[in-house]
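Q: Could you write out the predicted structure for this multi-component system? I'm mainly interested in how the pieces pack against one another.
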Amino acid sequence: MMHRRQLLKAAAAAFALPTSKVWAASAPGESKFVLVFLRGAYDATNLLIPYANGFYFESRPHIAVPRPGSGADAAIALDADWALHPALRASMLPLWRAGQLAFVPFAGTRDMTRSHFETQDHIELGQGPLTHDFNDGFLNRLVQQLGARARPMAFTAELPLSLRGAQHVPNMAVAQAGRGGLPPGEEPLLEQMWGDTAQSASVHEGLAVQSTVMRDLNASRWQAEMQAASRGAVEPHGFVAEAARIGGLIRDSFNIGFIDVGGWDTHVFEASTNGAHGQLADKLGALGDGLAAMARALGPAWRDSVVVVLSEFGRTFRENGDRGTDHGHGTAYWILGGAVRGGRMVGEQVALSPSTLNQNRDYPMLCDYRDLLGGLFARLWGLNTHQLRAVFPDAKPQDLRLV
Amino acid sequence: MRSSHAPVIAIQPCDPSGRRVTAPDRVPWFARGLRPMALLPLMLLGGCVAPTHLGTTAVTRQTAASGAAGATLDAAARANPLAFLDRIGWGADSAQLSQLQREGADRMLEAQLRPDPHPVLPPQVAQTLATLPVNAPPVALMPPLIIEERAIEMAKRHAGNDTDAQSMQTQLKALFRRMNTLTQQAMTEQLLLAIYSPDQLKQRLIWFWTNHFNVFRSGNVGPMMADYTQRVIAPHALGHFRALLQATMFSPQMLLYLNNAQNAHDHINENYAREVMELHTVGLGADYTQTDVTNLAHVLTGLGVDLADRPIRVRPALRNQLWQHGLVIFNPARHDPEPERVMGHMLQGRGLDDIEHVITLLADDPATAQHVSFELAQYFAGSHPDPAMVRAMVCSWQRTDGDIAAVLRTLFTSPQFAASLSQPQLKDPMRYVVSAVRASFNGRIINNVQPLIGMLYRLGEPLYGRETPDGYPLDSGAWDGPGQLVTRFEVAGQLAAGAPALFRPAPSAPSAGATPRPLPPPHQPPPELSGSPVYLAAEPTLSRATLESLAQADNRVRWNALWLASPEFMTH
């Protein structure tokens, strides 16, 4: 295996292009893809409630979300089998009704370790069973295949595994952007000092991206857009504000984005009075509000955008003794965007019973994430079989007609 | 983002009995049935290179070998003093530089491996630490807070009107602020010790083990963080791994954070059981299954915490099994007494004895020696440690029953370690920030670590701020993203200007309450780092590009900022 240092040097030689990649404005009509990673394994069973099935209510005596029609905090029926968590009524239900939101209820990976870290790594590397190279994430391979078309950005404090690899991809935690800059004139000296090190490409990219982000954030229209995005409601905070800023940056300067949201590992007190309230409900509500704010901030570019929300695995179908749930297997993916053929459940489904649960414990996985994303990438960018194989070496890309 | 796991390897014991050494020609055996996925990074390692006879021959050979390595280490350390001091501590300061010059690397290393249990601190630091309320034992610190919180919550529920409810809410907020102050005091203590304590290697290990046995500051854990770092971890930081594992397993912080406090026979919570195997001991890829996790969770039922420190009532028949130490309790009424099989070992359902047995089982597993040695090697020698060096560490581990100081001695005296001093590795944020302070404010004691806490947060490595149990990544590649490096340059700029806030009175200092705040100290010019002992020691090793950039700085602050942002200062 090549050493990281050598790899980066090679990457620097091959890809340390002038900053044009970062500075190029978005072309109208070009596809945009955003991956939102919910780290910690969110409880998909309380996002999409299998309400037609008594087994759900038996299995979750304290944390079930009430049946559709049962009251103000009831789940909202989406079809004959599934209902949506009520915390998403204002943010996501309108998108579902507009046909811009679909769910894949039994998605995931073949990894059965039930380890957060192992499975997150497995997803982000996406290399299949034969290799395990920590400097070769699947989104980086996608960027390589797209060549000059790709303008990727990780909106995270650390560059995620999925975007590590031969192509140099910038990252920046937007929540912290703009706090204390470098003195003017310092950039060239910094670039000079770091010119011959393993980090030279990273330093170059970082300084270039910082000026792009600062330019976009300083643009005068920004304030007005923030207010429009919050629709005059209380000042957006936390994830909502961050997601709106990210939406604006993607609209102007990027076409592949990565965001992660943590804190979903609800072993204890997932719900308070019932599944409609408490920790998970609050988190889902904030996530939905953030995604809706991002959609609004994307403006006209929303039409060409696809956002995929995923998590490493699902949780146990039955609640544990602490009003919580433990590590599971299959999980539900969200697919949203202006071009998404939504308002429907996508992919194979199964009626839930003790015998159809995986190991009588959690959801089975009926749709491999690599097949799903591979098919989606083919649609978005017209990648051929050869290119898709470079992104996901052992996948069988499935055209789920998501867009 | 996560760094790579330690490669899964087939372990050949140097010493199956735990003490003796096998004949070197034994056919290697492959540890257990690895899952196909875990097999990928499989590296076949030979067994420990062991002398054929025990006794004098072995001892002589060992001494000779370590003597030779010592010469290499001393030469490498003198050629690159910053790199050496960055590895065995939190970075060079003038005192350590002259000590290295005087005593040489070997004596210095030996002293660091066997530190004075009561190191001498600068008087101002010793005085600050002595007055921190957070240093009360948790059994004294926590119950009053918890009882107060419950009383306010109760009153809030029964509040007759909105005004009462509002006032309860205000009281609750004030209580949480006090608890947060305690967490900040724990950070203050750890940072001041890292910057000023002479037992630098031990302080590095306290951070390392706190990260290995990671807990998160939220809720009631935060106020107990000083106890966790200084009394759960510190006494065993250079001791035996088994004792360290036991101390963390029986700590209220870990029991709360990974939910074993909620694990009882009628509602199993397997969170801790899983992570203690996956992260703390044998590691993912070792020979265990979901069934082992569940069974271990059953064994650990009843081990929990009572933060309010109330007397526990159990049936008379169970009374002699009840065990309580500080806030930690083994409650037999919550324990599942069924026998369980864990990783091939049958546990007979003897309550606390079974838990002790499990600690030995996990600590002594060869996979644990491998997993933990690899992490130590990553932290002290670089992201991709030489397998032969790790193998030697595993052998030391097995020879010494998991003596951490012995394992580290093997690491630091290996030729690979000496060679690694000339292979720069990006420091993680904690190492960067602490080393910058040690290098920059020679002799001037800082009063207020708040700005440093903020810098660590911005750089993505806040103290006690890792929410997930895996701890911060040890692979330096996790810290070199473009955004991360630019943020570092900004932090370098703050420190370069002298960070005057560091020398203002600390907000949590006892004097800053009722009495008016003392006046800030008189303005001090930014430090002149171009004449600092640390810079002068580094100068001969700087690249031409760095020297040329520094030469272009047109004022002192800019010069400082470039030096602290230089690749030579940010690495090792």
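A: Regarding packing and overall arrangement: Chain B is about 50% helix and 5% strand.
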